[in-house]
Amino acid sequence: MTRLVGGVTLAALAAGLVMGFGIAPREATQGNVQRIMYLHVPSVWVAYLAFAVVLVASIAYLIRRAEAADRLAHASAEVGVLFTGLTIATGSIWGKPTWGTWWTWDARLTSVAILFVMYLGYLLLRGMIEDRERGARFAAVLGIVAAFNIPLVHFSVYWWRTLHQPPSLMKPGPGTMPGIIVTALLVNFVAFSLLYVYFVARRARLLRREAEAAG
Amino acid sequence: MPDNWGFVLAAYGLAAGVLLAYWRFLARRERDLRGAAERNRIAPVSGHPGPEPASRTPRA
Amino acid sequence: MIPEPLIRVIGLRKTFGNHRVLDGLELEVRAGEAVAVLGANGAGKTTLLKVLATLVRPTRGTAIVAGHDCAKDAEGVRREIGLVAHGSYVYEDLTAAENLTFWATLAGLRLSAAARAGALATVELDRAADERVRTFSAGMKRRLCLARFVLARPRVLLLDEPFAGLDQRAKKWLEEHLASFKTGGGAILMTTHSFGRELAVADRIAILAGGAIALDTARGALSADDVQRLYALHAEDVS
Amino acid sequence: MRRAFIVVWKDLLVERRSKETLNALFFFALLLLFIFQFSLGPDRERLAGTLPGLLWLAFILNGLLGLGRTFVVERENDCWEGLLLSPGDKSAIYVGKLAGNLLLMLVVEAILLVLFAFFFNLDLGGALPALAVVIGLGTVAFAAVGTLFAAMTAQVRARELLFPVLLLPVQAPVLLATVKATEAVLLGEPLGSVAHWLKLLAAADVVYVAVGVLTFDFVLEG
User: Fold this and answer.
1) Quick count: other Cβ atoms within 10 Å of Cβ B12?
2) Is A210 an interface residue toward C (CB < 8 Å)?
3) C165 and C74 within one domain
């Protein structure tokens, strides 16, 4: 099954590249460096998707103590941290030419950085507890606290960076961009989401096998 | 406005590298596990009651 | 009418990591009965008690205490049991009276000074009521723990080597107290790894070896040596 | 509620008898002042700008020490299982521990405030009530998550390491809000001007305490 998903994901990623480099036009003001957007924005989306899944799976685990829910939360958190790291890296690479510095305390980058550290702590917690059942329970609680913390991070960082008037929550959405760019972005959204599903499926299966081997 | 293709390639290259590394990490772990599982089936570890684990509350 | 079993353990298995401590354990303790579980260190005696006390979740099988399932209805079980384990659950900086006040209130009981004094008197700690528990001997700490259960009046007592570290006077006192608890309709499950006087209070002896009950026999007129022989017979060949 | 109160009563009694935590925290607060002075240089004008940050940095460091010890008395007296076995829902224990921690934090913060005023020649007169609101809201959020994470890490081997690593990232938004609000208040601006920060802090308090109460059972299970 996952082999099929893997295949579809590869195809979708290829389509995303074609759209990003081939079809989408060269952006007027920034030039071609703007094409990093087709990588940066979808990975932010996947990161938030991953942490939403961690929240749901954590609550499910605490209520029903289903091992599968715990494994899903663990796998999704790991993939989430991976994409958060990717977001930060691509964001700063994109920032260098456009803003002149590798790292700026730009609202979006900062909130993603806080998420990165928070969920890295989640993975650290999992690593440090030997007893599997207790580790799962504590990770679920942390998964919930971290998820509820995300909106607080968002607001506080936005106000912190843009001084007094609280701007709209949404980042500059695709709405303001010409159609073709939006389609390219959407294709990449789909491709990255599939990649997320593929990675989580494989990672969760690996966790199950490890549990069985130890069990 | 200079195109900075270098940065674009850097970003995509890094992303590809990281994702590929993660994919290989998963594949390798799965292979190790399958190997270990085979070894277990061939010469199963003899089951014997080891020492009782320390009691649940930690000592200060 | 046979009194209903207060403790029922059916096919209990518990694994830590890949080490199977308990496997296929069957046991029943009826109201008004005391069972002593005999076993070597590491045979899983403490693990059995912890499963019944809802401190550890069974890997497989069920454990039912006073009609409540330990895994599904832990709160129900906790209202019915009194656990005296190695940790005697006392705050050493507090006095005996303060300890009692804390634990009773936390258990949701309304504790009057008279009831508290009464409980302390029952366990012969009334003179030490206002002394800090730090100065108490192991026996006094255990009696303070039992004083909590004089107040809470559980129907089941789970005791982990209750006689260990007690002097003769304290042992005699504990024996009488457990006997009266039994006649009051309570069930007692205690663990021990010695064959001495401790077994006097037990109606049945269950030998735990290889993760399950190897032998479950009425104590009756068995002397300490009979028990030792039986234990050697059953425990050695399994492990 | 009586059950929550008895937890606070017990912790205060143990603290009064052993006097460990409060003395250590008071001494640590004093120490922080010296370290700030030595590391950042004596001239006060330059420090004035960073004062809110310094103040909250001191609060956070003291908080980490104090909150990290929430369940030490249970661990040293081997009473952790006793708490778990006492019937009734366990969030009362969380509320009790939270109240105790809050009291401890506020006392230490008051001491720190006095020390800061003394060392940095601050006249807090006018701003005190507004400052109290900001500190109160911030400390509740800090103690709520701190108490929950203290319970979680109490039984883990590397607890001194894990506790700050888990707590600080979660506290980032609260820290941003409190420092910004404190800055405005110290400059004499009315509370109204930082209303959005206060709303965020209030929201954080509600969220953290609610999550703490709802999930404490699962953490205590140990």
Assistant:
1) 19
2) no
3) yes
What is the overall mean pLDDT for chain C? 85
Name the residue of chain B whose CA is nearest to D154's CA. B58
pLDDT at A147 over 90: yes
Examine the domain organization and report whether C170 and C58 are in the same domain: yes
Q: Kindly determine whether residue C86 and residue B55, on different chains, have CB atoms separated by under 8 Å.
A: yes
Co-location of C164 and C149 in the same domain: no
Q: Are residues C164 and C61 in the same domain?
A: yes
Cβ distance D14 to C91 less than 8 Å, yes or no, reads yes
Q: Of the segments A79-88, C37-46, C137-146, C172-181, which one has the largest average pLDDT value?
A: A79-88
Task: Assess whether C66 and C174 both reside in one domain.
Answer: yes
C66 and C162, same structural domain?
A: yes
Overall average pLDDT of the A83-92 stretch: 92
Q: Tell the residue number behind the tokens 């590298």, with chain if given.
A: B17
- Pick from C118, C134, C153: which residue ends a domain? C153
Contacts of B22 in chain A (CB under 8 A): 82, 199
Q: Does A32 touch chain B (CB under 8 A)?
A: yes
Nearest CA in chain C to A213: C18
Identify whether residues C231 and C167 lie together within a single domain: yes
Predicted pLDDT at C146:
87
What pLDDT shows up at residue B55?
38
* Domain containing residue C23: 5-80+154-238
- DSSP code of residue C133: G
Mean pLDDT along residues D104-113: 92
Q: Which chains touch D (3 or more CB pairs under 8 A)?
A: A, B, C
- By Cβ distance, the residue of A89, A97, A199 closest to B14 is A89
Note which residues in 144-163 of chain C have CB less than 8 A from chain B: none
Contacting B residues, span 1-60, partner chain A, CB-CB under 8 Å: 1-5, 7-8, 10-12, 14-15, 18-19, 22-23, 26, 29-30, 33, 36-37, 40
C30 and C101 in a common domain:
no
Last residue of some domain: C123, C153, C183? C153
A7 at B interface, C-beta within 8 A:
no
What is the average pLDDT across A78-82? 96
Bridge partners (DSSP) listed for residue C38: C192, C207
Q: What is the pTM of this model?
A: 0.87
Other Cβ atoms closer than 10 A to C233:
12
The pLDDT of residue B2: 64
What string of DSSP letters covers chain A?
-HHHHHHHHHHHHHHHHIIIIIISPPPTTTGGGGGGHHHHHHHHHHHHHHHHHHHHHHHHHHHH--HHHHHHHHHHHHHHHHHHHHHHHHHHHHHHHHHSSS----HHHHHHHHHHHHHHHHHHHHHH--SHHHHHHHHHHHHHHHHHHHHHHHHHHHHHHS-SS---SS-S-GGGS-HHHHHHHHHHHHHHHHHHHHHHHHHHHHHHHHHHHH-
pLDDT > 50? residue B7 = yes
Question: What is the value of ipTM here, to two decimals?
Answer: 0.84
Total structural domains within chain C: 2
Amino acid at A145: V
Residue C15: its chain A contacts at CB < 8 A?
215
Residue C96 lies in a domain: yes
